[in-house]
């Protein structure tokens, strides 16, 4: 653990680059559909709805973690934030699986003007925030995993965590907006 503790920034960078490489490879069509096991169409069709539920749950766990740390409940904060991260991993795994299995993202079914001036800007901000969150999340998680709670105030955990949680909440919320536009409005 001492090796990890002394190399949190390096490990954050390595994990971030590796994670984002997988995401961009999947989004860029670099991973062929044959690389993932097949699934019935009903499973692929259910993933966006499951991911919306995961996103809403993650919004709740992030908010609960934020409230817990403000109340000084470190154990509850830790549990909520670990749950949030696991929800994020589940969301991303399902999203990337569907993306690869279908050979690309879902097309926007609404009017071109709505797509250009509403949907794509919301999607772009959602994606940008999600990408920015990756290294921030790894950093705060690695700090928390390698230090006793009493040592965390002497680190950047709280400052970076506030930024990460805020961006994460907005990203998840915008993801729900994207889902609603894709699957319910149009």
Q: Can you give me a brief rundown of this structure?
A:
Keywords: Membrane, Transmembrane, Transmembrane helix. This is DUF420 domain-containing protein. Helix content is 80%, strand content 0%.
**Contiguous runs where pLDDT drops below 50 for at least 5 residues:** none
Question: What percentage of the residues does DSSP assign to strands (E)?
Answer: under 5%
Q: Total number of β-strand segments?
A: 0
Describe the global form. globular
Overall structural class, as computed from helix and strand content, comes to mainly alpha
Counted up, domains total 1
Provide the helix percentage.
over 70%
For the sheet with most strands, the description reads: none
What is the radius of gyration computed over CA atoms, rounded to a whole number of angstroms?
18 Å
The span between the termini is 50 Å
Helix tally equals 6
SSE succession: HHHHHH
Protein name: DUF420 domain-containing protein
Keywords: Membrane, Transmembrane, Transmembrane helix
Pfam families: DUF420
Transmembrane segments: 49-67, 79-97, 117-142, 163-185
Structure description:
This protein is mostly helical and 186 residues long. The chain has one domain. Helices cover 80% and strands 0% of the residues. The chain is globular and about 50 Å long.
Provide keyphrases for this structure.
80% helix; globular; mainly alpha; 186 residues; single chain
